[in-house]
Amino acid sequence: MASDIVAWFEFLLNPTLLESHLNQTNPEPSAIGLIIQFIYNSIKRTDGGNNEVETMDVSTQESNNKKKNALSVLALKTAAHLNWNLEIFEQKLPLHMQDALLIALLHETLEEMSSPTTHGTLDTGPLLPYQLFSVALYHRYALRALVRTKLPAKPIKVSNVPIPGQQDPTHESREVQEGILSVLERGGDVSVRILEQLLGAGEVRAPVLPTFTVHTHHTTVISHAWERCKSVADEQFKCQIHYDLGAYHFLQERYEDAYSHFSEACKLLPELGSHPDYCQVNEGKLRGYYKSCASLCSQSTPLEQRSLYDRFLHSSCSGFQDLIKILSEDNVALEIPSYLRKNLELELQAKPEKAPPGFLLQVQTLNTVRNVLEGDLWNSNYPAALAQGGKPGVQFLIQVLAAKFSRFTSSHKERIRLFFITVNLTSSIKEVLVPAIRICPPLKALFSQEELLAMWPQYEEGRACSNKTSPDATVTDPNNLNDIIWDLIHSYSPQVLKSAVMHYKNVMPPRLDVNKKEIPELNVKWEIPIPIYNTLMKLPQTSQRELVFLYIAKAVELAQAKSFQSALDLLDEACSNSSKLAGRDTARLSKLLMWMVLMTKIQHCLHELPCVDNSVMSDLTNEARKCLSAHNGRDGIAPWTGVNNWCILLLLNAGEWSSLLGGVSLPSHLYLLVLVKPLAATARALREKLTNKTVWYELWDIVVGVLGNSVQHKRSSSGQSTAVERHHDSVIMSRSAFLDFLENIREPSCLSIIISLLGHVLNLLNQEPSNEVHIDHLAMWPSTDVTLPKETVRETLVWVVDHATRLYPTATHTSAALCTSWHLSRADLSYMSDQYHSALAGYLTAVFVATDFLRNDNGGDQSVLTDSIIRRMIRCCMNLNCYTQAAILCQFLESIDYSTALRCLQERNSVDAMDAYYCCLWDVSLIEFIINMHQKRGEIQRRDKALKMMGLLEVNSNNNDEIQREAAKVRKHRFLRAMAKQYL
Questions:
Q1: Is 59 exposed, middle or buried (0-12, 13-18, 19+ CB in 10 A)?
Q2: Which of 157, 430, 817, 854 is 20 to 30 Å from the Cα of 346, by its Cα?
Q3: Torsion of CA 313, 315, 316, 318, to 10 degrees
Q4: pLDDT tens by residue, 918-963
Q5: How confident is the model at residue 860 (pLDDT cuts 50, 70, 90)?
Q6: 305 pLDDT exceeds 70?
Q7: Contact between residue 496 and residue 569 where contact means Cβ atoms under 8 Å apart
Q8: If DSSP codes are grouped into helix, strand and coil, which group holds residue 461?
Q9: Do residues 481 and 522 touch, judged by C-beta distance below 8 A?
């Protein structure tokens, strides 16, 4: 037994040790392990049987009774530490131990009525607050046990490891379990009555660990400190009882009663807070129960709150109201079964009069899109139906795909591209489909110019399309106002927009009493930079000015959608047309548009980083310097703040830190410089290997201030900030603005500095070595205490690390050390959040990046797989029930952890294939243990496989060190590749 592990009987000798032991981070034995030992040793019979008990003298029997009572109280104290969480008890304790524990609680709180069999006449009115809690807890357990027996569940996974030759304390015979359940079932109605009475109870108090006093040899009468009980919030108490009563009524098929209780629980759920101590209601299960009961009881739920499946069924039976919207949402959510959507389509084909004209084609389009996105076969008759629908059908298809395009993955986009190529084979649709794709930038970006030419040989790119013989000139009907407005709002082709503006000015409205809107008023979401807008509106109102406005507004839309090349094309058209405008401010407008073009180019460059040519980056940095120097120009035309900020971001990401620190005359009013300058100075100091703690601490204060800004809302009556707020008096931006700034950081050194700073803050807040996050540049930051919301810091760090690893997944565009460090940080963050699968994936990715996919690994490099990281990987595997993998990893430690490895190899609940990893073993002692274990279990095939591994020459322990290292290296790589296939 390890020296730091405390035996259960030590708490019996010194009960004061229990509280300090349970307050440790990972106590060993755990709380559940202690309860098992306390209950087991309090209820087991002595080895001599009943005769030995009869021959005992009175003093010995009294001593045994005191011991059993003390063990029961110790179990209650441990259960109180777990906040009497029945969820934990049900998952990790066998039924007879749950029953013994809660009956022991009744015995300590209710003297006369401590036996549950007497509760048929129990009146809860006179009970004290702590007695109300114990009675509620027992009868909740009784109903929950009855519910669990009727539902499929995984077997209980016990935390302790049985010692060979001794009885398993958690073993429970079927007869014992059935006996307890029969007693609980007979008292089911009593439990329901008592819990319903307790819903009207007043104050309820839960016993806590210090409440109970343990029996000793010197005590005769024990009095517990009931005044030290903790008050239970009324909302938590009632919500939990309503949920348990509802589940029991649901099991008994009393759906009206169940619906009533679930309704009350749903009402109380928002009042529980984020982490209620005495309520463990699973919101997902509660909502599922509630919806099931509502359906069975014919209770109507508001339509907008129902699932897409329910809304689909309702719409199908009520005239297809909002059905198109429902099907469109389901193309992303994938909630409605495909066969139901297909049945609807067949029904509409059989009875087309049930729906308005064009409705069938819309349903066919949405169903086809669903099949395409899922990679399923779609109806081969759809292209013919689409061709028959003409331009409105094509427009609807384009609109459906464009509306959800941002939510599509790369595989979805490739399927859409192949779908369009296939549909285009229908000869009668090319003239409409290809122009429609062309004026929709997201869909156009899926194809190269050569592919569009192949799809439609008459397709032409450029200004030649503006003549009347071009197919684009026929896209808009010059006499249909709705058609013109559709093109003005949805088209991004300069030629189509120019034609639509001219037609819009000349066409008459359908009704003379309705005024036709101006073009800028057609879409309230159109926006252009304020300086350009103010300058443009000073010019005379002409069709040319409206066209320039439209080009700029469309360019802003495209830039926001990351379609930068199309945005630049529109801005070029705006620049060429702006020079033709009449007015004194034409020159000013041209210069402002020139800066807007530069800003869009910078946005495009930053979006493409790190895959940008050096020549492009060099040209843009020169233009950015000139732009920043123009703020003190003599003509009075200065770039606005947005342009300046993008120029600063470009110089930061280009590594031009000297320019930001004095090489260029920068505008003093830019708040972004307060953050950028310390970051640039820190990055330059790292690059030149200088020490500049003043700048580092300045960056520290600024970032800490930003992170603490979310809690700076309390002020004293005099209006002054509190002490905590004054600590963050350097706040320059909100946290959301800070995240927007970080999103545009692409330079690896800057990302590394931010990750290091945030990681150090989180480590200071955790103050637990076992939860530390891996970071670089540790010596840069102060070790002073910080007062920040830990969750805010963790979420920000997770976001930045994900951002960095998404930009630099491998060492292609940055150093392997930086990329490896980020993957380790990401894995540590997942480990802290108990996301063990993601953590393992992160650690494995770090190994493969650091070793260039194991090509540069000599087998002895511990730069990534340090002992602390290997132990975390072992813990992840154990929590995922992959115990064989955990045992293999124990070999990776500098000193093999035989204790953990042997325990993992004996684990019966392992879900990974044990003998599949025998080829990854190189430690002779582990192989010998496996052979012996399989021999005892009678597993002959597995034993023979392990014997085969033992017989290999390179595994012989008498080999020299070089051969042993090479054998270990080969098996390490084999195991790491096997792990990568599973987790990456």
A1: exposed
A2: 430
A3: 120
A4: 889 989 999 999 999 988 888 888 888 889 888 888 887 777 888 8
A5: low
A6: no
A7: no
A8: coil
A9: no
Helix (H, G, I), strand (E, B) or coil at 715: strand
Token pair, residue 810, equals 């491998």
Q: How many Å separate Cα 453 from the centre of its chain? A: 43
Strand partners, 808: none
Q: Burial, 137: exposed, middle or buried (Cβ in 10 Å; 0-12, 13-18, 19+)?
A: buried
Asked whether 131 and 202 are in contact (CB, 8 A), the reply is no
Q: Which residues contact residue 621 at a Cβ distance below 8 angstroms, ignoring those fewer than 6 apart?
A: 650, 651, 654, 656, 659
Give me the chain's average pLDDT, please.
83
**β-sheet bridge partners, residue 206:** 230
DSSP bridge pairs for 231: 205
Determine the Cα–Cα distance for residues 629 and 908; give it in Å rounded to an integer: 71
Q: Count the Cβ atoms, other than its own, within 10 Å of residue 458.
A: 11
Q: What is the pLDDT of residues 72-83, one digit of tens each?
A: 888 888 898 888
Instruction: List, in order, residues 6 or more apart from 694 with CB less than 8 Å away.
Output: none
Nearest CA among 759, 789, 787 for reference residue 773: 759
The two tokens of residue 79 are 């259960």
Integer Cα distance of 478 and 500 in angstroms: 8
Helix H or strand E encompassing 206: strand 205-206
Residue 463: CA count within 13 A, CB half-sphere:
5
Cα–Cα–Cα angle for 620, 625, 630, nearest 5°? 125
CA 598, CA 161: separation in Å to the nearest integer?
A: 67
User: What are the tokens at 794?
Assistant: 């963790």
Q: 269-272, long-range: CB within 8 Å, 24+ apart, which pairs?
A: 269/239, 271/235, 272/233, 272/235, 272/236, 272/239
- The 10 Å Cβ neighbour count of residue 586 is 15
> Distance between CA atoms of 215 and 629, rounded to whole angstroms?
82
Of 477, 482, 488, whose CA–CA distance to 520 is shortest? 488
pLDDT reading at 811 higher than 60? yes
With tokens 């009855």, the residue in question is 146
Q: Is the pLDDT of residue 17 over 90?
A: no
Contacts with 892 (C-beta within 8 Å, 6 or more apart), sequence order: 865, 870, 972
What pLDDT is attached to residue 160?
A: 46
CB 232 within 8 A of CB 133: yes
- In the 3-class helix/strand/coil scheme, how is 22-86 assigned residue by residue? HCCCCCCCCHHHHHHHHHHHHHCCCCCCHHHHHHCCHHHHHHHHHHHHHHHHHHHHHHHHCCCCH
Q: Are 384 and 429 in contact (CB under 8 A)?
A: no
**φ, ψ of residue 518 in degrees (nearest 5):** -70, 155
| 231 three-class SS | strand
CA dihedral (751, 754, 760, 762) positive or negative: negative
Phi, psi torsion values for 864, nearest 5 degrees: -105, -55
CB 308 within 8 A of CB 280: no
> What pTM did the predictor assign?
0.56
What's the rounded Cα separation, in Å, for the pair 749 and 818?
Answer: 8
Categorise residue 755: left if φ over 0, alpha if ψ from -120 to 50, beta otherwise.
Answer: alpha
The CA distances from residue 609 to 559, 642, 681, 750, in Å, are 16, 20, 22, 14
Radius of gyration, alpha carbons of the chain: 36
Return the SS3 of 721: strand
Q: Is 230 helix (H, G, I), strand (E, B) or coil?
A: strand
DSSP states of 897-932 = -HHHHHHHHH-TT--S-TGGGGGG---HHHHHHHHH
Over residues 123-159, the pLDDT tens digits come to: 888 888 898 999 999 999 999 999 888 776 555 544 4
pLDDT tens profile 720-756: 333 333 334 445 788 888 989 999 999 999 999 999 9
Q: How far apart are CA 239 and CA 177, in angstroms?
A: 29
**pLDDT for 35:** 86
DSSP per residue, 747-761: -HHHHHHHHHHHHHH
Place of tokens 């179990």: 75
Nearest by Cα to 365 from 334, 400, 335 = 400
